[in-house]
Amino acid sequence: MVDRVADIWGARTPHGVDEPWPVRVDQYLAEGVPEHEVRWVPSACVLCSNGCGMDIAVHSGRIVGVRGRAGDRVNHGRLGPKGLFGWQANNAPDRLTEPLVRQGGTLQPATWDEAMGLVVERSRQVLTERGPLAMGFYNSGQLFLEDYYTLSVVVRAGIGTPHLDGNTRLCTATADFALKESFGTDGDPGSLRDFDLCDTLFVVGHNIAETQTVLWARILDRLRGPDRPRLVVVDPRRTAVAREADVHLPIRNGTNLALLNGIQHELIAHDRVDREFVAAHTVGYERLARTVADYPPERVAKICGVPADDIRAAAEILGAADRLVSTCLQGVYQSHQATASACQINNINLLRGMIGEPGRTVFQMNGQPTAQNTRETGADGDLTALRNWQNPDHVAELARIWNVHPLQIPTWAPPTHVMQIFRHAEEGSVRFLWIVGTNPAVSLPDLRRIRSILAQERLFVVVSDAFLTETALLADVVLPAAMWGEKTGTFTNHDRTVHLSEKAVDPPGQARADMDIFLDYARRMELTDKDGAPLPKWRTPEECFEEFKRVTVGRPCDYSGLSYEKLRGSGGIQWPCDENTPDGTERLYADHRFNTDTDYCEDYGHDLLTGAAYERQDHAALHPEGRAILKAAHYLPAHEPPSEEYPFLYTTGRTVYHWHTRTKTRRAPQLDAAAPDMWVELAPADAERLGVREGDVVRVESARGRIEARARVTGVREGVVFAPFHYGYWDTPDGVSGDGWHRAANELTITDWDPVSKQPLVKVAAVRVEKIADAGGVPSPAPTTAASRPVGEDLPPTEGGAGVRETVEGASAPVEAVRETVEEGS
Amino acid sequence: MRVGRAVSDAQEAELDLARQLRRVGERHAAEPDLYHLGHTLARRCGEHVERLAPFARRYGVRAREGRTESPHLLEALRRRSGELVGHSELAGLLLLRDLRDLSLTAHEAEIAWVILAQVAQAVRDPELLQVATECQEDARTRGKWLRTRIKQAAPQVLVAG
Ligand code: SF4
């Protein structure tokens, strides 16, 4: 048995480029469960975008554990700490089990009829008085496809408001937009197997070791194997990924675009461009070359604060690659000039002609487990099945399938992003806001502002969730929702792998599946299509899936060849899957023909600086016709640079043990114990200047608020302060912290978003730091593993995830010999 | 020949626009995209003006400075009152009016570049043509941004506001 809190990635199973990734089945059962009596229900993990195939162990009507699915293409049996332990949240004693309604200032238990009656009454009132533009819906990245698609039809076709977004806006909106800008439609082109096949990895602002631990285990197995791929890492923190790098560029946050332009400058200057590919399969090269010509390494070095020689060395590695896999995540998506930067990563693979082939691809990675489905179903700012809201034919097609008038679907302007929905609520034009399975009172920037918006008398707030979150506490009606394992549905990971997750147990009390809640709402609101038939017309998840298949026919995310039957017990199937590709499609663009035909594309593109939406004629004038679009943009300084008053750069991020605002992971004892409380990270030189040592309490302050937490001195870049964004207020004794709201990282972040993807920029703000108390012998609660590993301190190591069984296929016993500990590396 | 006239017209138009962008951005500080992009675009206007400096000299008119920063205190004041106004229901109407005015000024600047590009061709000045063409492109993008923003704001203000 293994401690998988201490040993995050588990035993190594190294292999070479020509060998398959070995199977290693990870299993964790609650203590004392008789294994032979357990019933296993096939599912997949919903705690990050990797979507590892897993079986849920059920005993006496309760979930009692999980194991990885050996035959699953995503994980080959492995699970990470969140997957192994996170399921315990389902059994938490404080699950919401009945609806709550605000009465006399407090939330009181109510029946479903009372609660839904109130929701419907207020909806009707707002619709009569102000129309659909006064209605807003904000959902999650953790529901199932069927939940999202139902919501999408209810809101877009039924209610008819453009104010529908998902919290994927905070997570992968930039991935979505970068893919649309470069390749014409959403959908990551590559396969996870490309990590097994590559010879070079380019990792930008993506702490894979903590965000997708099983993917990192997969990469480690290559890094420890016979033909180790070369690794270039861009990250201001010394993450576990950075520690493995051949070249690590710890750039100043907010300067990604300058660096990426600089790398392209070098690729072009040293003729590392696949001219034939670029000429045949891209447009925009001239403009790109002209733009990046302004970014020689010396200039970039000054902007980014890293040596010019390191930039050259990185470009040399990328230029020498034969099978290059590039990947990026929040370090790009939540930072200054997000979409512009993400597009440059696409450009690098395009310049090198490395896309659509084994071991050659770019991943605009997802964060949340089911983010891909919000985008496909249109439960965020996209139009269902990767359609283009500016293309009247696409809208008409949708209207035909839904049997509503095309004008019913609001497409006169881009669908409203969450920050704008909150802005409308702030100025009073949105009066009804339904928040589904997400916690904006902790996860959105500038929390003081968010709380004040949600607390307004004139705004009616409905929250459906499994727990009483910080957001639910501000609601007028709270609806108890079923979680994963308590309902059936499908979801899709970042390499387009679709899984079916089956209901294993009943939801607690009166909790209901989100899809059922939306259907109930639709029936009570008497939503109908234009012939008076109920809208949506399905009743079960499977019926919904069949309807969704219909709406995807002929679109890039074609699900028509899939069915529950086919997915049941499969190892995951990648879309597109239609009658010609019944086993799915491993890679998009294998023929180097991209989805950029003007009539087919999902978006006509944007100006990367202003976010101005291009229109049909602008797109047509480019004549992309199946060629990828090389987008170019100049670097501009971030909006809130450090100043005399606020001399540090502030950035936020996650730890391996937690998920978002910890509504689930805080209720898994092993994960909670591994990272129980807020901390902030400082670089050694800064800590010394400030007189701060391990465990000292510091105050970090921005123009918007302040937080107080124990400091950990880590390998973060000098001048940068890091704070994890997981910690809110629901588990503090008085619902706040100390004398007020001084715990959540987003108290300090700025209200600002990327002009194209509208993703909030929570990775660049200016702060000041001061010490306010001595440690008193208590270390910071930060884990000693991964990126928060202490520098120059000997602390008790983070552990406490014992009882996990790892079985390596073909080995007689688990391979303890090649096991690594956290001590390994520099 | 009145080539200089076209050069100074373009300079004036960009300076006007820059001032207005800052003013509107600050007045609507509660609309963060307007605030930040307003300032970014105002700086861009300044760069356009400076790119014309050599041509102003070449054609005998006064070269204007590109800087149009608001005095610090004034900016802070406008921003603060912008944030307050941002909570009132009238904010929307004010926003729409300001965006409409802004788009008129932006259009004027765009036309100034069109004129300048024509003039540059007629006097066979390839350098001026290059600058005028590039700035005209920027001006067109600016216009599109404003259109996108107005398209988004108008229904909300006029139907739900
Ligand atoms: S890597 Fe992601 S999907 Fe896989 S087990 Fe961990 S949290 Fe779950």
From TrEMBL, chain A:
This is Molibdopterin-dependent oxidoreductase YjgC. Residues 38-94 form the 4Fe-4S Mo/W bis-MGD-type domain. Residues 817-826 have a biased composition (Basic and acidic residues). Residues 775-790 have a biased composition (Low complexity). The keyword Metal-binding applies. Residues 775-826 are annotated as: Disordered. PANTHER family: NADH-QUINONE OXIDOREDUCTASE SUBUNIT G, RESPIRATORY NITRATE REDUCTASE. InterPro entries: Asp_de-COase-like_dom_sf, MoPterin_dinucl-bd_dom, Mopterin_OxRdtase, Mopterin_OxRdtase_4Fe-4S_dom, Prok_molybdopt-oxidoreductase. Keywords: 4Fe-4S, Iron, Iron-sulfur, Metal-binding. It comes from Streptoalloteichus tenebrarius (strain ATCC 17920 / DSM 40477 / JCM 4838 / CBS 697.72 / NBRC 16177 / NCIMB 11028 / NRRL B-12390 / A12253. 1 / ISP 5477) (Streptomyces tenebrarius). Pfam families: Molybdop_Fe4S4, Molybdopterin, Molydop_binding. It comes from the Bacteria.
From TrEMBL, chain B:
InterPro entries: Ferritin-like (IPR012347). This is Uncharacterized protein.
